[in-house]
Amino acid sequence: MEKNKRLSPFEQGEISALNQSGCKISEIVRQIGRDYGTVKNYIDLGENYGKKNPGGRPPKLTPRDKRRILNEASNQIVSCAQIASRLQLPVSRSTIGRVLNNSPHIEYEKMKGKPPLTSTHKANRLEWARKHMTWSKEWDSIVFSDEKKWNLDGPDGFHSYWHDIRKEKIVFSKRQSGGGSVMIWAAFGSKGRSNVAFIKGTMDSTGYTKMLQEHLLKFGAKMGGRKWIFQQDNASIHSSRFTKDYFLQKKIRVLDWPSKSPDLNPIENFWGILVREVYKNGKQYDNVNQLKTAISTAWVKVEKATLQKLVDSMPNRIFQVISEAGGSTKY
């Protein structure tokens, strides 16, 4: 476990994302691979982390400052960092969070629900987990993939948000108008990543296999080694007869995958790192080309060590599925 080395920007992003999602410091330490003191120091210092002379302790908030913070969280969906930025308060995210936590009217709520799991889903997940529970270095050969939509005006939703319990809960619906979007496909493994594939329109099995021909076959060995195995979810175009015939023709080995299991795919955490970078400080985009450039830039900036850490999380994901009898994990 590394000590005394400064956290990279993406490590800082990982810690912030995990901290805001409610993970304990001990769990963040395990996932990030850094010592307890380094992680706690970053969380405590927030935006002052890494500054040689931050000027002592952050100035104390006045009663008026605290009222402004509570009012900001009460009236809109914001993160602690956004509150500090909008109100121009020279304090850390954790300080903002403590003010909100101390309020009897504000609570931190999960907003993104996980896919509902039936008894059949749970049984299949449990069977799959038991089948792979002895895997360790085998995961280094897996190429994990997924599609993701990106919006010009920000992500589809925060994982959690501050909610004033005196008010009705906000109903988050799909956008009715305004704001373009970009759909991408990408993959990564312990040894590297693919290029980002930008998807135009609705994709069918033919389009999917053409995309794999260009973006998977060129990078498969670079991502998972000579004996790489491809992972995908069970979307219809992924599991169609046409796509299965393509895999047979190209001799691509495909990992069996349980339905309703995004929590088992570490690329979901990769997306989380990218979202924080692409939409940093509430960033929005004027056009699709700007957004594409930001996504591509963020994708290649993620350090290779982070890729390995994400892959190394697989045994723990499987352990959690078994512990939950096939139920959802915290990932």
TrEMBL record:
InterPro entries: Homeodomain-like_sf, RNaseH_sf, Tc1-like_DDE_dom, Transposase_5, Transposase_Tc1-like, WH-like_DNA-bd_sf
UniProt domain Tc1-like transposase DDE: residue ranges: 142-292
GO molecular function, one term: DNA binding
TM ranges: none
Domain Transposase Tc1-like: 67-133
Major site of localization recorded for this protein: nucleus
SUPFAM superfamilies with a match to the protein in the record: Homeodomain-like
Domain of life: Eukaryota
Coiled coil: none
GO biological-process terms attached to the record: DNA integration; DNA transposition
Location in or out of the cell: Nucleus
GO cellular component: nucleus
PANTHER family in UniProt: TRANSPOSABLE ELEMENT TC3 TRANSPOSASE, TRANSPOSABLE ELEMENT-RELATED
This protein's name: Transposable element Tc3 transposase
Source organism of this protein record: Folsomia candida
